[in-house]
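Thread title: Can someone regenerate the structure for this chain?

I was given the following input by a collaborator and told the matching structure tokens would be attached. They weren't. Posting the sequence so someone can regenerate them.
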Amino acid sequence: MDFSVATNWDFALIEELSGYPVYEFLGAMAKNPIGGGRPAVILPEPESKKIEEYIKEVHKKGIKFNYLLNAQCLGNTEYDKTMHQSILKHIEWLCKIGVDSVTVSIPYLIQIIKKQFPSLKIKASVIAAINSIQRAHYYEEMGVDEINLDYMSNRDFNFLSKVKKNTHCSLVLLANDICLYQCPYRIYHYNTTAHASQNWCKINTFYIDYCMINCTLQFLNDPAKIIMSRWIRPEDLPIYEKEGYTRFKISGRNMSTTWLTRAVKAYSQKKYNGNLFDILAAIAIKIDPEENSYCYIDNSKLDGFLEIFKKKDCINSCSECHYCETIAKKTVSYNKKRADYLKKSFQELKDNLIQSKYFL
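Best answer:
Regenerated them for you:
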């Protein structure tokens, strides 16, 4: 069992995790010509020299470095001569500083890297939403070396079993994100975060996370949606290992070294005592959950809860099933004061946005 772990560019994180089964760190400049899956405003902003030094230190520990080029949209700038050259220059720099692999979402970018930068291993991003065997085959034909499967497929064991048997490249599962199941904002969200992390985008320093506001309100108003989210408990990793999955991604580029170390330790030991919410990474909130948590998920009461998903067809029967609601009543509780404050604040933000009051 091996882990691909998000970095916050803290050198102490390398030391803290050197004794754990980490096969790679992953990260990127907060802003660069390509962008990625997190807005720059919530990320650390290391200078290029620090990134180069960081990668050297990672390599000294025998660990590889995976650089994220996983923007879902480039605004068609990839077809502009000047911007295209800046993209190539950025990738050339990655090769120069010793990056081992890149995670990519856009097929055109995958094929550019495959043809022009053969020294880089290519990993298809979770953002590519690879959720079928046919789609996985298309990415294999493009030449990717590893596929991060669609997060929404984490509990579709029929798919997980079949895609494992019918693909040749390495497969990775994202373990600790907390996103709405079948989130209606997800595609739009990745488009907005792409532009909010591109150094040429004129408004990337001004970012209102409309999608996160909506998702958080959903979680605050319905605890069942927290259970429906496709996170993987540390205790349930053996279930996935039986299906042949040995590589897992731990996200949290916006989190502290203490938080990331706690998450990696829990997944390495396949056990976490306490609030499961403390090791789940919210996509666009720059806080440490243990300091600002509105939610408590009693991990000790979730033993065995995953078994039903081996037989369930969630994608087609979710509206007819109340299993997650039943589990939520047993395991999820809210810090009422904190939850009420967030609910009120986020609802006001949402109302101001949809009534265009911010733009008057």
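Residues 67 and 102 are 5 Å apart (CA to CA).
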